[in-house]
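Here is the promised in-class demo. Please do not try to memorize the tokens; focus on the logic of going from shape to residues.
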């Protein structure tokens, strides 16, 4: 992100912040550009380089909107989510195309990203009429006991660029339906997608101040949101390093925090697997979204008996994958998000080589012809990787797949679990007993059998163990836990004082009176 003085641009529209229902410029007087990663000559737009004062104004607006929004019955709030889901469905193609242009993923995947936003909107709209609590018997006669979910307050939503619609929706939909108001800070690589999304939310009827948008850097806007005493819950998806910093800042204020962080996801291929199917699953998981998913497969752990055959098939298919603009229907793999990402990916290939891995295909940026103006990197397969090599341990977030050869299932499990992350994992086998063992043994928040590591559905909990997060889950009804407090309510209709744990015991007398 390079800051520019803010002024009208002949080249591209300038977009504003949404604060308390008004579209307003940043007080900073600065702007930043968003460009197409497939062709940097294409300027998508100019966006406000927000600062801490902008964040503070948005937080105040969210706070002001809170009482009315909390007082709105949850089913009514849900109806606005339904309208949003329906509008997003109507505008799916437009939003998907904007996403491909701004973020680079191929159009069918961009449509999938928008669809995930629609799905969570409808799922959470329904929560407006569920949001189950417990109604349980009291241990005392003539007494009622129940628990209800209550909103926490202002939610700070800090999102990455790799799912520019789905992830903000995963976070904002449960936050809003449960009665929180939102300050949304999207990644600086995808501010246009965020602006479109918020405009559609506005059109759906979210009242002024319930959703506020502030664009700008993590250092200025993100830190201001996380550090604010008036933000009650923060949800962040991004790197483990940034997540740890946020956890420290939020911890100082005992703030509710949901973190969705790195992954080093593995696909295990056993000797009895359907290899054609495994190859399809591996390529889709490793090179889909150019490897830029938290759930992407970056390791294949394969039994010796099928290692050479599998590698041969993978390399042949990977070599034939076409790089290009995601808007071109013949493209298999789009660009990386920016040049910094490309340099990081290239450096990991070198690290792999220096550790003794062999580059079986890819390994270099691609700058020929039409690709000269984008950040393209060839789908890369490294062989001869050992489980403790850096390329098998660290998140690369690009189209680099490490192949690890193992002797048997036990060695495969040790390799799957031998990283600091634990998001997604998969096994290809025809042996039902070993499939069930994998479901038990793989220490990840998501396990797939005979499918790749990507493609989670929005009505199941999404998240991981170890340094992938801090124990929260997104999506599914589990997402409600991030954005609500439990309130336990007791109603005594006996008309007399009843002491729990005392008056209902056989020796009901107070020990002090015995
Ligand atoms: C992410 O990469 O952070 O399961 C989210 C999947 C998608 C979501 C990925 N449904 O790959």
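The designed amino acids, position by position:
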């Amino acid at each position: 992100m390079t800051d520019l003085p803010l002024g009208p641009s002949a080249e591209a529209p300038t977009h504003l912040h949404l604060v308390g229902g008004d579209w307003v410029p940043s007080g900073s007087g600065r702007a930043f550009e968003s460009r197409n990663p497939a062709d940097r000559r294409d300027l998508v737009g100019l966006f406000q380089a927000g600062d801490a004062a902008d964040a503070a104004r948005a937080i105040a607006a969210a706070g002001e909107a809170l009482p009315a929004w909390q007082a709105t019955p949850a089913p009514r709030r849900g109806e606005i989510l339904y309208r949003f889901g329906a509008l997003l469905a109507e505008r799916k193609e437009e939003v998907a195309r904007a996403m491909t242009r701004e973020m680079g993923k191929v159009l069918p995947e961009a449509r999938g990203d928008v669809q995930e936003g629609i799905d969570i909107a409808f799922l959470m709209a329904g929560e407006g009429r569920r949001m189950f609590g417990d109604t349980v018997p009291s241990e005392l006669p003539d007494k009622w006991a129940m628990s209800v979910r209550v909103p926490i307050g202002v939610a700070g939503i800090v999102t990455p660029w790799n799912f520019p619609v789905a992830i903000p929706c995963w976070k904002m939909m449960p936050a809003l339906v449960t009665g929180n108001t939102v300050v949304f800070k999207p990644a600086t690589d995808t501010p246009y997608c965020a602006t479109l999304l918020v405009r559609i939310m506005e059109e759906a009827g979210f009242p002024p101040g319930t959703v506020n948008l502030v664009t700008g850097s993590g250092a200025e806007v993100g830190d201001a949101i996380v550090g604010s005493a008036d933000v009650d819950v923060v949800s962040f998806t991004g790197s483990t390093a940034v997540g740890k910093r946020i956890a420290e800042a939020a911890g100082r204020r005992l703030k509710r925090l949901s973190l969705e962080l790195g992954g080093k996801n593995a696909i295990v291929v056993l000797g009895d697997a359907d290899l054609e199917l495994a190859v399809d699953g591996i390529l889709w998981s490793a090179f889909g979204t150019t490897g830029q998913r938290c759930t992407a497969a970056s390791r294949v752990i394969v039994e010796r008996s099928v290692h050479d055959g599998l590698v041969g098939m993978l390399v042949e298919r990977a070599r034939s994958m076409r790089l290009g603009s995601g808007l071109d229907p013949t493209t298999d793999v789009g660009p990386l998000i920016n040049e910094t990402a490309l340099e990081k990916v290239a450096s990991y290939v070198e690290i792999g080589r220096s550790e003794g891995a062999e580059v079986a295909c890819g390994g270099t940026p691609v700058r020929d012809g039409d690709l000269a103006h984008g950040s393209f990197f060839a789908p890369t397969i490294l062989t001869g990787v050992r489980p403790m090599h850096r390329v098998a341990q660290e998140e690369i977030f690009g189209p680099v797949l490490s192949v690890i050869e193992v002797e048997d299932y036990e060695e495969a499990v040790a390799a799957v679990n031998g990283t600091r992350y634990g998001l997604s994992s998969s096994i290809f086998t025809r042996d039902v007993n070993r499939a069930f063992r994998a479901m038990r043994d793989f220490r990840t928040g998501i396990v797939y059998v005979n499918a790749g590591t990507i493609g989670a559905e929005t009505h199941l909990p999404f998240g991981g163990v170890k340094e992938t997060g801090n124990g929260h889950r997104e999506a599914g009804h589990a997402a409600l836990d991030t954005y609500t407090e439990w309130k336990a309510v007791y109603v005594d209709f006996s008309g007399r004082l009843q002491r729990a744990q005392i008056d209902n015991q056989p020796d009901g007398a107070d020990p002090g009176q015995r």
